[in-house]
Design brief:
- By secondary structure, this protein is α+β, with helices and mostly antiparallel strands.
- The protein has one domain: 4-Layer Sandwich (CNF1/YfiH-like putative cysteine hydrolases).
- It is built from 6 helices and 13 strands.
Length: 257
Amino acid sequence: MTGPALAAGWIVPEWPAPANVRALVTTRAGGVSRGAFGAGAEGGMNIGMASGDDLEAVQANRRRLASLLPGEPRWLRQVHGAVVASVDGDDVPAQADAAVAATVGRVCVVSVADCLPVLFVDTKGRAVAAAHAGWRGLAGGVLQNTAAALRRRLDEPGAELLAWLGPAIGPERFEVGDDVFAAMTARLPEAHRAFVAPAGSRMLCDLFSLARLALAQAEVHSVHGGGLCTHSDPSRFYSYRRDRVTGRHAALIWRES
């Protein structure tokens, strides 16, 4: 990475990605946002333009992030869907919740605050992808679509892929209703294993387990990361479920030459 040093607490994935691949997830720390978007007495690294934060602060945070990267991240207009955009070109992508790129220096990015960011690369480091996977995206097949788009970009249907699961709301905090259970079991035959029904009317849902099931369905078997809960660590992570008024993290991946 180039430019200033990473802020303390930012996440660099530990996974067996090829040496030419770089990835990063921001946390609350390292920016200029204040109030609900801050980081204690320090400025917060909110990158969410529609979060309710001061837009000048968000833009300053995005500039700070871009200074660490080989190029401007290809920001998506996310809608909790399953569309995958190619960001190799110069056009701004339409609405999409995942991005794929093979161009060196082209940065794929998704923004999250409880939803699960999933990063992808093929084992030869020829193309990368990032996906925004909340329960709606998972039910819509966003991870399967992303794996398929990455293989199409490589023109190799059987390409072996790696995936890394970033921070998201954890299985002890993600309360859902019957609608989520029905949507997920319709998509993934084994999805019932990711739900627990404690006393009360709500179930607990494990996004990490659902993502692993979706990736297995897409024949992505080398899956890493998972387990960091945004909801239960307010000093480090933004969480929409916990706070409602909150910032967004960025999960990014790119290729170097």
